[in-house]
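From the thread on structure requests for the teaching lab: each student submitted one protein with a one-line request. Submission from student K.M.:

"Model Peptidoglycan recognition protein family domain-containing protein from Streptomyces haneummycinicus, tokens only."
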Amino acid sequence: MARRRRPRTAAPRYDDEVVAVFIHHTDSPNGYDCADAPGIIRTLYEGQTGARDWDDLGYNFVVDRCGTVYEGRAGGTDRPVTGAHTQGFNHRSTGIAALGTFTEGVDVPRRCCAPSPPWPPGSSARPTPTRAPTPGWSPATTAAATRPAPPPRCPSSPATATPT
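Reply posted by the TA:
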């Protein structure tokens, strides 16, 4: 029997500050078009709120291969929301997930088609996250209002992930 997704009922939890950032990957396919990212994030949300019985997406932010930054866990992009991304280290940290699989031996795009916006420490130039798709989200109304049209799909010449 499949679990039913439970509605987001818990209020977001907050920490006093963020002192660490954890970078993850979603372990999902790499060969997606950027226009498909909201659906992929919706599937991640459904898996975490259904199969894992969490109250929300675990990551604070999700970034697609074209550089679009999505707000993951509810609570505000400018507040220290307690995530569920790194067991034992969720407090006073934020979790950012790159949409895709980035493990040794996996083909990954060589580059993105859209340059990432600058975000150096101390700069006021910050990307504005888009709310991740949740139940009732409509790509026809929300995506057009919050995101520019996606750039063309990245070239098909993949690179292979190597350990750092």
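TA comment: Confidence is low (pLDDT under 50) at residues 1-5, 113-123, 132-164. The radius of gyration is 16 Å.
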